[in-house]
Design goal:
With about 270 residues, the protein is an alpha+beta fold. Helices cover about 25% and strands about 25% of the residues. A hairpin with a 2-residue loop joins strand 4 and strand 5.
Amino acid sequence: MRAPDAPAPYQLVLSRGLPDETGAVRLRRDLPEEEWRWIARLRRPDDRLRSLVGRALVRRLLGRRLDLAPEDVPLGAGPRGKPVLKSGGPGGDAPGPGARQPPAWHFNIAHSGDLVLAGVGPRPLGVDVEHCPDSVDANLWRLVAGGPPPDPAPGGSATAPDPQAFCAQWVRREAVLKACGLGLAAEPGTLRLADAGETDWTPVSGLPEAEGLWVRLLWASPDHCAALCLPGVAPAMPSTSARGPAPHDAPSPGAWTLRTLALVDWIDGRG
Protein backbone atom coordinates (compact mmCIF):
# COMPACT_ATOMS: atom_id res chain seq x y z
CA MET A 1 0.00 0.00 0.00
CA ARG A 2 1.34 3.37 -0.94
CA ALA A 3 2.36 6.13 1.44
CA PRO A 4 0.14 9.19 1.94
CA ASP A 5 0.14 11.47 -1.07
CA ALA A 6 0.20 14.66 1.03
CA PRO A 7 3.31 16.00 2.81
CA ALA A 8 1.40 16.65 6.02
CA PRO A 9 0.19 13.62 7.99
CA TYR A 10 -3.23 15.20 8.53
CA GLN A 11 -5.33 16.55 5.68
CA LEU A 12 -8.53 18.55 5.86
CA VAL A 13 -10.89 19.48 3.05
CA LEU A 14 -13.74 21.97 3.35
CA SER A 15 -16.33 21.40 0.64
CA ARG A 16 -18.84 24.11 -0.25
CA GLY A 17 -22.17 23.32 -1.87
CA LEU A 18 -24.70 20.48 -1.90
CA PRO A 19 -25.31 18.27 -4.95
CA ASP A 20 -28.29 18.35 -7.26
CA GLU A 21 -29.95 15.07 -8.25
CA THR A 22 -27.31 14.27 -10.86
CA GLY A 23 -24.50 15.02 -8.42
CA ALA A 24 -26.10 12.89 -5.72
CA VAL A 25 -26.24 9.94 -8.12
CA ARG A 26 -22.53 10.43 -8.85
CA LEU A 27 -21.59 10.53 -5.16
CA ARG A 28 -23.67 7.45 -4.37
CA ARG A 29 -21.25 5.41 -6.49
CA ASP A 30 -18.57 6.09 -3.85
CA LEU A 31 -20.64 4.36 -1.15
CA PRO A 32 -21.58 0.71 -0.64
CA GLU A 33 -25.32 0.12 -0.85
CA GLU A 34 -25.68 -0.54 2.89
CA GLU A 35 -24.20 2.84 3.76
CA TRP A 36 -26.47 4.63 1.31
CA ARG A 37 -29.52 2.88 2.79
CA TRP A 38 -28.52 4.23 6.22
CA ILE A 39 -28.23 7.76 4.83
CA ALA A 40 -31.54 7.44 2.98
CA ARG A 41 -33.32 6.88 6.30
CA LEU A 42 -32.47 10.40 7.46
CA ARG A 43 -35.66 12.44 7.55
CA ARG A 44 -34.55 15.78 6.10
CA PRO A 45 -33.37 15.97 2.47
CA ASP A 46 -30.52 18.38 3.29
CA ASP A 47 -29.30 16.05 6.06
CA ARG A 48 -29.17 13.23 3.53
CA LEU A 49 -27.18 15.35 1.08
CA ARG A 50 -24.72 16.57 3.74
CA SER A 51 -24.13 13.01 4.96
CA LEU A 52 -23.70 11.82 1.38
CA VAL A 53 -21.10 14.51 0.64
CA GLY A 54 -19.21 13.83 3.88
CA ARG A 55 -19.05 10.07 3.45
CA ALA A 56 -18.09 10.28 -0.22
CA LEU A 57 -15.40 12.87 0.50
CA VAL A 58 -13.80 10.97 3.36
CA ARG A 59 -13.93 7.72 1.36
CA ARG A 60 -12.01 9.39 -1.45
CA LEU A 61 -9.40 10.79 0.94
CA LEU A 62 -8.93 7.41 2.64
CA GLY A 63 -9.03 5.53 -0.65
CA ARG A 64 -6.03 7.47 -1.93
CA ARG A 65 -4.05 6.46 1.14
CA LEU A 66 -5.09 2.81 1.08
CA ASP A 67 -4.96 2.44 -2.72
CA LEU A 68 -8.61 1.40 -2.75
CA ALA A 69 -11.66 2.53 -4.64
CA PRO A 70 -13.83 4.77 -2.41
CA GLU A 71 -16.62 2.18 -2.20
CA ASP A 72 -14.12 -0.48 -1.05
CA VAL A 73 -12.79 1.48 1.94
CA PRO A 74 -13.89 -0.68 4.92
CA LEU A 75 -15.76 1.64 7.28
CA GLY A 76 -17.56 0.47 10.38
CA ALA A 77 -18.77 1.63 13.78
CA GLY A 78 -16.46 1.90 16.77
CA PRO A 79 -17.17 2.60 20.45
CA ARG A 80 -20.27 4.74 20.99
CA GLY A 81 -21.08 4.35 17.31
CA LYS A 82 -18.27 6.58 16.03
CA PRO A 83 -17.45 5.70 12.38
CA VAL A 84 -14.02 4.10 12.05
CA LEU A 85 -11.79 2.47 9.47
CA LYS A 86 -11.94 -1.30 10.01
CA SER A 87 -8.78 -3.40 9.88
CA GLY A 88 -8.27 -5.91 7.12
CA GLY A 89 -9.27 -5.85 3.47
CA PRO A 90 -12.21 -4.24 1.71
CA GLY A 91 -14.60 -6.63 3.44
CA GLY A 92 -13.16 -5.83 6.87
CA ASP A 93 -11.74 -9.35 7.36
CA ALA A 94 -8.61 -9.73 9.45
CA PRO A 95 -5.42 -10.18 7.40
CA GLY A 96 -4.16 -13.73 7.05
CA PRO A 97 -0.94 -15.13 8.58
CA GLY A 98 2.08 -13.23 7.37
CA ALA A 99 -0.03 -10.55 5.68
CA ARG A 100 0.99 -6.95 6.12
CA GLN A 101 -1.28 -5.08 8.52
CA PRO A 102 -2.76 -2.04 6.72
CA PRO A 103 -1.88 1.35 8.18
CA ALA A 104 -4.27 2.80 10.72
CA TRP A 105 -6.05 5.92 9.52
CA HIS A 106 -8.57 8.00 11.37
CA PHE A 107 -11.15 10.40 10.04
CA ASN A 108 -13.82 12.83 11.15
CA ILE A 109 -16.64 14.68 9.40
CA ALA A 110 -18.64 17.79 10.29
CA HIS A 111 -21.22 19.79 8.37
CA SER A 112 -23.33 22.92 8.66
CA GLY A 113 -25.58 24.33 5.97
CA ASP A 114 -23.85 23.69 2.64
CA LEU A 115 -20.40 23.29 4.26
CA VAL A 116 -18.87 19.84 4.81
CA LEU A 117 -15.53 19.52 6.60
CA ALA A 118 -13.64 16.20 6.42
CA GLY A 119 -10.30 15.31 7.98
CA VAL A 120 -8.06 12.23 7.84
CA GLY A 121 -4.86 11.43 9.68
CA PRO A 122 -2.73 8.76 11.37
CA ARG A 123 -4.16 9.36 14.87
CA PRO A 124 -7.60 10.31 16.21
CA LEU A 125 -8.75 13.78 15.27
CA GLY A 126 -11.87 15.89 15.59
CA VAL A 127 -13.31 18.62 13.39
CA ASP A 128 -16.36 20.80 13.68
CA VAL A 129 -18.01 23.58 11.67
CA GLU A 130 -21.08 25.50 12.79
CA HIS A 131 -23.20 28.44 11.69
CA CYS A 132 -22.98 31.30 14.17
CA PRO A 133 -26.32 31.85 15.94
CA ASP A 134 -28.15 35.14 15.70
CA SER A 135 -28.10 35.60 19.48
CA VAL A 136 -26.85 33.88 22.64
CA ASP A 137 -27.87 34.27 26.26
CA ALA A 138 -25.63 33.91 29.30
CA ASN A 139 -27.22 30.59 30.36
CA LEU A 140 -26.38 28.94 27.05
CA TRP A 141 -22.82 30.26 27.28
CA ARG A 142 -22.42 28.72 30.76
CA LEU A 143 -23.80 25.38 29.52
CA VAL A 144 -21.33 25.19 26.64
CA ALA A 145 -18.26 26.91 28.12
CA GLY A 146 -18.64 25.79 31.72
CA GLY A 147 -18.41 29.32 33.12
CA PRO A 148 -19.74 32.86 32.79
CA PRO A 149 -19.31 34.77 29.54
CA PRO A 150 -16.42 37.22 29.29
CA ASP A 151 -16.88 40.84 30.23
CA PRO A 152 -18.69 42.65 27.42
CA ALA A 153 -16.93 45.03 25.11
CA PRO A 154 -17.73 48.70 25.57
CA GLY A 155 -21.35 49.21 24.67
CA GLY A 156 -22.07 45.44 24.82
CA SER A 157 -24.49 43.58 27.04
CA ALA A 158 -23.50 41.21 29.85
CA THR A 159 -26.69 39.22 29.24
CA ALA A 160 -26.11 38.83 25.50
CA PRO A 161 -22.64 37.40 24.74
CA ASP A 162 -21.17 37.83 21.29
CA PRO A 163 -22.55 35.07 18.99
CA GLN A 164 -19.26 34.67 17.12
CA ALA A 165 -17.31 34.26 20.38
CA PHE A 166 -19.87 31.68 21.48
CA CYS A 167 -19.57 29.82 18.19
CA ALA A 168 -15.78 29.77 18.55
CA GLN A 169 -16.19 28.18 21.99
CA TRP A 170 -18.70 25.67 20.71
CA VAL A 171 -16.75 24.37 17.68
CA ARG A 172 -13.52 23.93 19.64
CA ARG A 173 -15.25 21.93 22.35
CA GLU A 174 -17.24 19.89 19.86
CA ALA A 175 -14.05 19.07 17.93
CA VAL A 176 -12.46 17.84 21.18
CA LEU A 177 -15.41 15.63 22.08
CA LYS A 178 -15.40 14.16 18.59
CA ALA A 179 -11.66 13.47 18.78
CA CYS A 180 -12.28 11.65 22.07
CA GLY A 181 -15.11 9.65 20.55
CA LEU A 182 -17.45 10.96 23.25
CA GLY A 183 -19.78 13.07 21.13
CA LEU A 184 -22.98 13.77 23.05
CA ALA A 185 -21.93 11.46 25.90
CA ALA A 186 -20.18 14.37 27.66
CA GLU A 187 -21.14 17.99 28.27
CA PRO A 188 -18.91 20.48 26.43
CA GLY A 189 -18.77 22.62 29.59
CA THR A 190 -16.77 19.90 31.38
CA LEU A 191 -13.78 20.64 29.14
CA ARG A 192 -11.16 23.16 30.16
CA LEU A 193 -9.35 25.14 27.47
CA ALA A 194 -6.23 27.04 28.52
CA ASP A 195 -6.13 30.73 27.69
CA ALA A 196 -4.72 31.31 24.23
CA GLY A 197 -5.29 33.42 21.19
CA GLU A 198 -8.24 32.26 19.14
CA THR A 199 -6.00 31.04 16.32
CA ASP A 200 -3.41 29.41 18.61
CA TRP A 201 -3.27 25.79 19.69
CA THR A 202 -4.91 25.39 23.10
CA PRO A 203 -4.24 22.42 25.44
CA VAL A 204 -7.34 20.63 26.67
CA SER A 205 -8.13 19.18 30.10
CA GLY A 206 -11.15 18.43 32.26
CA LEU A 207 -11.80 14.87 31.05
CA PRO A 208 -9.39 11.90 31.15
CA GLU A 209 -10.11 11.17 27.49
CA ALA A 210 -9.07 14.71 26.53
CA GLU A 211 -5.64 14.73 28.16
CA GLY A 212 -2.90 15.33 25.59
CA LEU A 213 -5.28 16.87 23.04
CA TRP A 214 -4.89 20.32 21.54
CA VAL A 215 -7.50 22.37 19.73
CA ARG A 216 -7.52 25.49 17.59
CA LEU A 217 -9.83 27.48 15.38
CA LEU A 218 -9.43 26.94 11.67
CA TRP A 219 -11.29 30.16 11.02
CA ALA A 220 -13.94 32.42 12.51
CA SER A 221 -16.29 34.72 10.62
CA PRO A 222 -19.62 36.39 11.44
CA ASP A 223 -21.31 33.47 9.67
CA HIS A 224 -19.33 30.33 10.51
CA CYS A 225 -16.60 28.98 12.77
CA ALA A 226 -14.59 25.79 12.38
CA ALA A 227 -12.10 24.00 14.63
CA LEU A 228 -9.57 21.18 14.57
CA CYS A 229 -8.46 18.94 17.46
CA LEU A 230 -5.30 16.82 17.29
CA PRO A 231 -3.14 14.87 19.73
CA GLY A 232 -0.10 16.71 20.99
CA VAL A 233 3.45 15.73 20.15
CA ALA A 234 5.57 14.31 22.97
CA PRO A 235 8.70 16.51 23.28
CA ALA A 236 12.20 15.06 23.27
CA MET A 237 12.95 16.79 26.60
CA PRO A 238 10.55 17.81 29.38
CA SER A 239 9.13 21.28 28.90
CA THR A 240 10.48 24.02 31.14
CA SER A 241 8.32 26.80 29.78
CA ALA A 242 6.54 29.32 31.96
CA ARG A 243 3.40 27.21 31.91
CA GLY A 244 5.29 24.45 33.74
CA PRO A 245 5.97 20.84 32.77
CA ALA A 246 3.80 19.64 29.91
CA PRO A 247 3.52 16.03 28.78
CA HIS A 248 2.74 17.06 25.21
CA ASP A 249 3.59 19.96 22.93
CA ALA A 250 1.23 21.50 20.43
CA PRO A 251 1.02 19.90 16.98
CA SER A 252 3.53 21.21 14.47
CA PRO A 253 2.26 23.92 12.10
CA GLY A 254 3.20 21.55 9.27
CA ALA A 255 1.21 18.64 10.68
CA TRP A 256 -1.96 19.51 8.77
CA THR A 257 -3.20 21.20 5.64
CA LEU A 258 -6.59 22.68 4.82
CA ARG A 259 -8.04 22.94 1.34
CA THR A 260 -11.28 24.72 0.51
CA LEU A 261 -13.04 23.39 -2.58
CA ALA A 262 -16.38 23.90 -4.21
CA LEU A 263 -18.25 20.63 -4.62
CA VAL A 264 -17.98 20.95 -8.41
CA ASP A 265 -14.17 21.05 -8.07
CA TRP A 266 -13.92 17.49 -6.76
CA ILE A 267 -17.16 15.63 -7.44
CA ASP A 268 -15.84 14.30 -10.77
CA GLY A 269 -12.41 13.48 -9.39
CA ARG A 270 -10.64 16.67 -10.42
CA GLY A 271 -9.88 17.91 -6.87
